[in-house]
Amino acid sequence: MARDYLYTTMNDVYFWYKLMPVVVKDNYTDPYTLLEAMRYKTLDRWSFIQTYDEYTAMFSGSFVGHGIRMGLDPSNKVRIVQITIILLCM
From residue 37, how far is each of 7, 11, 19 by CA, in Å? Predict the structure, then answer.
């Protein structure tokens, strides 16, 4: 279930996992509301969930930009861990 996967992922790899609110995942019926409850809103302005249609739409259309995701390596240095191409769907 997407909600359970999100909960596990947030607790495992989310940049601010030590600062996010404690939630009971079973109190949420979908990943959208769960993410809003778990997000560390003080600093996190970027986390979001796409629908499947939004995700697949990223692979068609015209290039309009890019995004990056950063994380810490084992020596606590910030590294770019993902680069995303953002597309405008036609």
Answer: 11, 13, 12
**Cα–chain center distance at 43:** 13
The pTM assigned to this predicted structure is 0.62
Question: In the prediction, which pLDDT does 85 show?
Answer: 65
Q: What is the CB neighbour count within 10 angstroms for residue 30?
A: 12
Residue 38: exposure state from Cβ atoms within 10 A (0-12, 13-18, ≥19):
buried
Question: What value does the mean pLDDT of the chain take?
Answer: 83
For 49-62, give one letter per residue: b (16+ CB within 10 A) or e. Answer: eeeeeeeeeeeeee
